[in-house]
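Chain particulars:
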Amino acid sequence: MGQTRRRQFLIASGAFLVAPRVHCQDTSKVRRLGLLCAADALTYKPYFDAFGEALRGLGWIEGKNIVIEIRYAEGDQRRLIEMARDLVGRGVDILLPGTTPGVAAAREANPTVPIVMTGTIDAHLSGLVADLSRPGGNITGLTVVSLDLMDKRLSLLKEAIPSVARLGYLHPVMGTNPQVVGILEAAMRAIETATRRLGIELHAIAAFGAGQIEAAFARFTTARVHALYVLEGSLSAHRVLIATLALKSRLPTMFGSPTFVEAGGLMSYGADLLDLYRRAATYVDKILRGARAGDLPVELPTRYELVVNAKTAQVLGLTLPPAILMRVDRRIE
């Protein structure tokens, strides 16, 4: 984490400790949450399970004093604004989007309904919040400084497979949303910087939907890339297809989310998303008890994990170095 990000984290953490007290409200009143998801139900299930368990621990019981409505875009970001408006129309008290496009759609659907981010990428850099320590407006929650991790992920990939000299980079199509465009452009700059430092040739391709993903792999094959880095976002809905095509192409893969590794990818390094969803429940609790979203500091991850799929490594004929294996937090057999 760079010095600027570290300062933001310390400021945000300190501000959270001195956040204003909130009035105790009656938890017997039924409240309504709207969960806005860019991918599919299977992607989010473990995270929603962790979120629901944390809510129950805070006294919010689904079907008793809280109702949770979920909408899945199945990888089609264009549906997010329509789904956000639908949730607002149903009178939700809080919206919980899981991605940058989701937060942007939620804010566009209604600029006053509280929004709790559940691990959005670089909320400050994208302009979703003015300041991490005091975001203002109607948005708070948790953000992942993913761009700072891009160099770390590629360094781990190069350490695991030193022969990598040409890297494929698969990322979502930018679209027109300014926050999404800003993040994807910043991600491109970050990966170009990292690959230059590591002496790796970069081949970047944007894709939307299964057909474009398959076409991208054909182009990666033509370019004879040695490994693949995937920026998740809307591509999460196609993680099984991506993992399958990578194995078929005999490409080692690196991701920021372990859901891709569980689907058959090789490695991931990033924030512990289960922990982020548990912590998101505390924001929901505070807001439902009277806190203003804009007064609650945005927090950064405190736990990170390196996940490796041992079966995929075996299929690819890879023997990962002991230095990598010693740092693995979760091994999928």
About this structure: The chain has two domains: 3-145+272-303, 147-270+305-332. The domain at 147-270+305-332 is CATH 3.40.50.2300 (Rossmann fold). Residues 1-24 have pLDDT under 50 and may be disordered. DSSP finds twelve helices and twelve strands in the chain.
